[in-house]
Amino acid sequence: MRFVSTRGGGAPLSLSDALSLGLAADGGLFVPEQFPQLVVLPAANQTLAQTAAAIIAPFFAGDALQDALTSICDDALNFVTPVVETRDPATQILELFHGPTAAFKDVGARFLAASFARLPQREDGQPLTILVATSGDTGGAVAAAFHQRPGFRVVVLYPDGRVSPRQAHQLACFGDNIRTFRVDGSFDDCQRMVKAAFANPELRAAVPLSSANSISLGRLLPQMSYYAQSALTHHARTGEPANYVIPTGNLGNALACLWARRLGLPIGEVQLATNANRVLPDYLASGRYAPQASVATLANAMDVGAPSNLERLTHWLPEIDDLRQTITARAVDDARLTAVMQQAETRWGHVVCPHTAAALAVIEDLRAAGDTRYWIAVATAHPAKFDSVVEPRIGHPVAVPPALAALLARPACAAPLSATDAALLEVLTASVTA
Ligand SMILES: *Cc1c(COP(=O)(O)O)cnc(C)c1O
Question: Fewer Cβ neighbours under 10 Å: the N or C end of the chain?
Answer without folding.
Answer: C
